[in-house]
Write a structure and sequence with these properties.
627 residues, alpha/beta, seven-stranded parallel β-sheet, 32% helix
Length: 627
Amino acid sequence: MKQNKFITNPFKVLEPDIRWVPGHDDLFQTAYEKLLPPLVHKIRNAVKNWRDKNYDGASKTSKALLNFWFNIEHKLQYYFAQREAIESIIYLYEIAKARDKYELLKFDSSGRVSTGMFDENWTRYVVKMATGSGKTKVASLVIAWSYFHKLYEEDSTLSKNFLLIAPNIIVLNRLKKDFETPEIIRNDSSLIPEDGFEDRNWCSDFQLTVHLQDELKAISPAGNMFLTNVHRIFLNEDRNPSFEDTNTLAYFVGEKPSPYADKSAGLDLGEILRSAKLRDLVVLNDEAHHIHDEKLAWFRNIADINNKLKLRHKTGLSLQVDFTATPKHDNGAIFVQTICDYPLVEAIKQNIVKSPVLPDEASRGKLQEKPSDKFVERYEDYIHLGYIEWKKQYEELKKANKTPLLFIMTTETTESDEVAEYLKLKYPEFNKAVLVIHTNKSGEINENIKIKRVKTELEELRKAADNVDKDDSPYKAIVSVLMLREGWDVKNVTTIVGLRPYSSKSNILPEQTLGRGIRKMFGSKKEELTVIGTSAFIDFVESIKQEGVELGYRKMGEGTGTNTPIVIEPDKENRHKDLGELDISIPVLTPRIYREYKKLENIDISRLEFKPVSIKQFSEQEKREIV
């Protein structure tokens, strides 16, 4: 492998032998074994060879789309991570025909994967991509490919019907921005080719009907996409309760009404997905780390839809693609169905996301957890340091009309309320500028805090959470329990303060914690995410080093600087300048000083010119004075 040739341009092709891994020699030699999912290495090499041969063997439709997406210049180009993901899906499905666990096992590099590790009996691929690297765009590519393949290719086993599942309302609202109407997809000039490309009328032929949650329309023979929260597809158990059931409550007192099947809201999506109206279906799961156990309702419902399709049409699901940054079981084991991997370490190295920065040892040494029953008094030092770092970012970024957000994570909802009141009273900047988001265990905004709010109030809260990083948002700080751990894609979070104990039994992963602030505000500028918290929280975040992520450390607190993006702009306050006459290109600057760990072996100490400095000796009394 040629580790020192890692390409930092996220749009350039990354060859399998130059992927970034930690710089330690011993770990580098076994990086694939320790860091990669078992199928990924062989799939990467197979896809690379296929790409080099101009997608030899692909159908006319697949080859046309791949060339359109990646060999024609668009206004918005695709990251290589996105390209590799869709190439891997198409290669496995169409070229390798790896549509079951037996065919997928041929790509195992570990020798430790068995068929018993695959719970499903239909085609399922898991795409592992870091938060912020464009998973939703890959879902769009899958939809376009499957739709046109089914439309244009004779005997295609794919589908023009799609079920796009979100784990909660927060994720669903984000997905609506990309899929709410078919025009959003059709008008994406980098996704759907113009009519006439390769002698086909792509735009005119793309006639997808979008069904949102309970707003179900008539099923269209031209194609359908169902965008829904996972709870709307829960199957209605039509079996009779039995005394042999594990829970016999339904047997003795009757079935509990489902909170999700509201017949007054219109058609039942669960019934439609299991009816004879659909002959085939592609399932897309966002934030799919929830599907880690065949016993879970999410998995069982997809299995039930697959069985209904087999029973009625002898087909089963055409394809299931799961997207997540953390495809891990509760015990830490990777999903064996993972076919491609763009880890957080590469996303940071390629400047797609922010770089996490923690307080250095001296700055952490000044923080004390005070002995107090009051939550804010106990963690006052941590909250104040978060405020100081946020304030420095705020002063710098307001020049670019951006409002950085301070995100404080607590354990209990009562603690969130206490922290919010403290911020409002202690710091004038946060008066009427703190948003408290209470969520339940499913990540839903909780409707049962203190009193049950009316529906309009809840909608306002959800809207505020969705729009918190817009320029006209009044909020500067967010306080929440960390059940809000996925799907909340806010770019303006620049400082995270973690006040949770973080036991090792927690299923929350450090990638999910950092994911709440890792997305960038600006495009090409290098940005930092400041991470502050209790010792347990910092230890928890630092555990991500096992994935190869290098964390930055610097002095924090009063009198220290910050590394927010430097804003370079014309002097608009000089009334003697005619800004319309200016024609100066502002260059993209690289840092004057930067760290390069991967070339340490090239340093020849014998060639360094220096004068030894005598080490100062301290008395025992002086040593005791040093902190």
